[in-house]
Design a protein that fits this description.
four-stranded antiparallel sheet; Rossmann fold
């Protein structure tokens, strides 16, 4: 009974105290402060959690930037899109694993790489996007365990497309003209018994005796030695002895410069790959690179093509009017139209020149010729320019044509030239220019620099490379 009375007295005292507290304004302030304190603390805590999540997002955005850039480095942009994506993903995953208090799954990253045409280059655009969550400290007390974070980064770079150059080089007898007007006059002067005023053509014959050329003997060569003790050698050997440079000789040297210097430097500068195939053309097409008679192997590395370039030599005939001894073909030794059709059949459908799986290099047909056709057409000898129809058919396949036209020098002292070539000569340059793709025609006159011209035309061909839309 006493315990009960004591409890009642205690409750009465506390009730009185609470009544006084509620009656006192200062007590109200204390209660309100206590009530507000709790959500304020949580708000501050959540603000801190949010700030930390933004800091982590900024850090991961930096990782996304690095990953996107890793996919467009000079080394990586020359590889496939798949390789670029793999490199970016590996970079991102390795770095995000070092960021603390972040929940991330490799499936939460999206990386795309897109190659698009822009003028003479391929532009690769890499987009890295991700989602993740940042762990909360205070938010977990009220059931908000994480904040979502996300971001993206884009990087671009460019590279030139891969190109295969199919080189069709004229080696017919007209390419055995000297490269200079002085050389032409010299050849005529040392061959006085040929034609009315000598012969400017340094024809390469296996049986010159059949023509009774009467070329001089004991000739003092340009190197100070004497050659031809019995005389009668062909004009090609005589020109070589006298140091007279022929157009085919310059084409040989120019091709070696292009394959050994210009093309490798351009490939390195453009961070891409160029390959080449070499064919010579006279009565037929002769494959100098790859396995002979195997068109699919014709395209080789620049280094391999360079090793084949010394074999660019003038066509050898038996003697005047005879391609093969005993078979008179009236010197119809230049089937440029037929050569175009043959080489076109060797060239597969061109690609865009990217490194993506299934894509193939772009293709350029690189012609060096004086533009003269001289062949039998259904029993009739045809003299004239290159066929525009054949060139158009090739260009319609998406193959560009670069044409280095070597002006056919008007050898007015030569009866064959005056009879057959002179009437069609004005059309030769026109035909060559019409054959070439826009911007890929270059003409070199006698006394001009073939090496410089070939390099210039090659650079034009590379600069105008474009992806098909």
């Amino acid at each position: 009974m006493a315990a009960m009375l004591n409890l009642l007295r205690t409750l009465a005292r506390r009730s009185t105290s609470l009544a006084r507290l509620f009656a006192d304004r200062r007590g109200n302030v204390a209660i309100l402060t206590a009530v507000i304190m709790v959500p304020t603390i949580f708000a501050i805590g959540l603000g801190l959690d949010f700030t930390l999540s933004r800091q982590r997002q900024d850090q991961i955005n930096g990782i996304a930037d690095a990953a996107a850039l890793a996919a467009v480095t000079p080394n990586m942009i020359s590889q496939t899109d798949a390789n670029a994506i793999a490199a970016a993903k590996a970079m991102f995953n390795s770095q995000i694993a070092l960021v603390p208090n972040v929940n991330y799954s490799p499936s939460n990253i999206s990386i795309t790489a897109t190659d698009t045409p822009s003028g003479s280059t391929i532009i690769r655009t890499v987009l890295v996007s991700y989602t993740a969550t940042s762990n909360n400290v205070f938010g977990g007390l009220i059931g908000s365990n994480t904040f979502p974070i996300s971001g993206s980064s884009t990087a671009t770079s460019s590279v030139s497309p891969q190109i295969n150059f199919y080189m069709l080089l004229d080696d017919s007898p007209s390419m055995a003209l000297p490269t200079t007007s002085a050389g032409i006059l010299q050849m005529e002067a040392v061959t006085p018994t040929q034609d009315p005023q000598g012969c400017a053509f340094a024809c390469h014959e296996s049986n010159p005796a059949a023509d009774n050329l009467q070329n001089p003997k004991n000739v003092l060569c340009s190197d100070g030695t004497r050659s031809f003790p019995t005389g009668g050698e062909d004009n090609y050997a005589l020109a070589g002895c006298l140091g007279i440079t022929l157009r085919i000789t310059n084409v040989n040297a120019a091709t070696q410069t292009m394959l050994g210097t210009s093309a490798p430097q351009a490939a390195a500068n453009n961070k891409t790959t160029y390959q080449a195939a070499i064919f010579t053309m006279d009565t037929a097409v002769h494959q100098l690179t790859g396995s002979s008679g195997s068109p699919s192997t014709a395209v080789v590395s620049l280094a391999s093509a360079l090793s084949a370039a010394p074999n660019i030599l003038p066509q050898e005939v038996c003697n005047n009017n005879f391609l093969v001894c005993g078979q008179n073909n009236n010197d119809q030794d230049s089937s440029l139209d037929g050569a175009l059709s043959t080489v076109s059949s060797y060239m597969p459908a061109p690609g865009n020149g990217t490194t993506n799986k299934g894509d193939t290099p772009q293709e350029i047909l690189f012609i060096v010729s004086d533009g003269l056709n001289d062949y039998d057409s259904n029993g009739t000898r045809y003299y004239g320019p290159i066929s525009n129809a054949t060139c158009t058919a090739i260009k319609n396949r998406g193959i560009r044509i670069a044409f280095l036209y070597l002006t056919y020098y008007p050898v007015t002292s030569d009866s064959w030239y005056m009879t057959y070539v002179s009437p069609v000569q004005p059309s030769l340059a026109t035909g060559a220019q019409s054959c070439a793709s826009p911007g890929l025609y270059f003409q070199v006159s006698t006394d001009g620099d073939i090496t410089s011209a070939m390099t210039t035309l090659f650079q034009k061909a590379v600069a105008t490379a474009r992806l098909s839309q």
